[in-house]
Amino acid sequence: MLLSTGSDRTASPRTDMDVDEIKATITKALTERSALPPYEDLCALHQDLVRHIEALTPLAAKRVDRLWRGSVEWYQKRRRLDTVPHEVGRGLGPGLQSAAWHVKSLGYTLRFLLENADLAGTGEGAH
Hints:
Mean pLDDT: 87
Strand order of the largest sheet: 1-2
Largest sheet: 2 strands, antiparallel
Oligomer: single chain
Helix content: 55-70%
Distance between the termini: 15 Å
Shape: globular
Number of helices: 4
Radius of gyration: 15 Å
Order of helices and strands: EEHHHH
């Protein structure tokens, strides 16, 4: 499902997003595995996650900033958004286990951003 994020081109360099592709990336990142995947696979998945996170972060921030500032919901979501740049900036690390853990963490972050990016049919309560 390809959705336009509107005419506000200052919010993000991308103005349309493939929600199905984003959901597939989340699924790959959060899939439980009996063995760790090759480091190269984690690197490719990391690139996809970061690309989607960078596209969705401004959209989610815009929606969160429309909440009543000071409410519990605003505080929790704003706090989560504020950690995104630090999480993305850490990189995968040198080890396979740490890379797998970081990819999973980015998967949860991407899911949070998708739920809060105000894209039709992806927000909280949409199932």
